[in-house]
Amino acid sequence: MRKIRTNLLNPVAPTQTEYLENHLIAWDDDGIQSVRPYDPTLDKDAQDRTDLLCLPGNIDLHTHLSQHRIRGIYEPSLLDWLQTHVYPEEALFADPAYAEKLSADFFQALFAAGTTTGVIYTAPFRQACELAFSRAKLGGARAFIGMTLMDANSPENLMQSTDQAFRDSVELHEAHHGSSPLLEFIFTPRFALSCSPKLMSRLGRFVQENDAWLQTHLSENPREVSEVLKLFNAESYTQVYEDFGLLTPKSILAHAIHLSEREMELLAERRCKIAHCPDSNFFLKSGEMDWRSLEAKGVQIGLGSDVAAGSSLDMFYHAKMANYRQSAFSLGPELLFHTLTLGNARLLGLDARIGSLEAGKEADLCFRKLPNREIEPQNLLSALCFCSEEFPVVETVVASKTVFCTLEGQLHQSSWN
Ligand SMILES: [Zn+2]
């Protein structure tokens, strides 16, 4: 049993966060056992970490393991960014040694950023996806992992045959679905431009019949949208996915920026989830997702880093970008914090297990150092959302196991027991 005396921030609702100062959080292999005020008579054996803030681990709803190394490489817009930087980088993952090393680096960086659950794209090679699963398991990550699919209009060295893309995905699904409480396979057509109608309709049928997860990109950039409409002779981008059966309650669609009212209604009817990636949208000048209209239509919105068009795995940085990206209204700290913890957990059907600090939940936790400057308790969450670099991560825990710990955390650990 780990017992820590510390300070907690706990998301209760989109408009409410609890700040629990000088509390005890205790967990063992079965999950969080208690969260209550510190009691000096009962809790003599607790480790004193009142210099820290304890939070639920962050959840990243959209990120590319296969682009981890090319963060911060400049390109003015999406399609050129893919051709010039992303495709050559992803081709390197044909080499298992490279795929293995980058997978290890990625999960280490994910944990160091305080993220405990990732929804992840890997390169279009089955072995690279398998290696990401092995690394996730070895490191102790909670993750949804998919092999990116490209069977049309793509560079030769990344192209899969339609049959192979479908068969490998189904076999990966069979190998990993339900094989671990922490890991899940997710079908991953990259976007409409890189997938044939035949592949998308086979995927649509399979995910519907098997209640499987699927992720893709939707309506990110105006040039991409116009190419999709031309290629499929379609009335809208969303309708293309609808026609192939790709829109289900287990579909996570990244970006969703240039949508008509009808497209938003369709996404709400199909109960699809949107992964909003504001930093990436700034970087590639893709546009501004209409948070308010999507929300008003009842579409469920979560947050993703979209590394590498997003420059960081720190989800609090992306919370700040989500606030900045909306030019007409302000997303407050409570809503942002809720979105990247309990909200994202709810979108993944995991809110009964993770996303907040409650006895009975699995212990997915992040401990961050409190800044040296004095911050009133009511302003702590706001400071965390807008100045997260002042709150360095010292320990990350997934399903009760420490997956990341700084030297400072280890020094404190040595005095446990
Ligand atoms: Zn993406």
Task: Report the sheet-strand fraction.
Answer: 15-25%
Main beta sheet, described?
A: 7 strands, mixed
Topology, number of strands: 16
What's the CATH H-level superfamily name of the largest domain?
A: Metal-dependent hydrolases
In short:
The protein has 417 residues and is α/β, with parallel strands linked by helices. The protein has two domains: 2-56 and 357-413, Urease, subunit C, domain 1; 58-313, Metal-dependent hydrolases (TIM Barrel), CATH 3.20.20.
What would you say this structure looks like, in words?
The protein is an alpha/beta fold. It has two domains: 2-56 and 357-413, Roll (Urease, subunit C, domain 1), CATH 2.30.40.10; 58-313, Metal-dependent hydrolases (TIM Barrel, Alpha-Beta Barrel). 37% of the residues lie in helices and 25% in strands. The chain is built from 14 helices and 16 strands. The strands form three sheets. It has a seven-stranded mixed sheet with strand order 3-2-1-4-14-15-16, with helices on both faces. Strands 5, 6, 7, 8 and 9 form a five-stranded parallel sheet that branches. β11, α8 (261-269) and β12 (273-276) form a beta-alpha-beta unit. The chain is globular, with a radius of gyration of 21 Å. Zinc ion (ZN) binds next to β5.
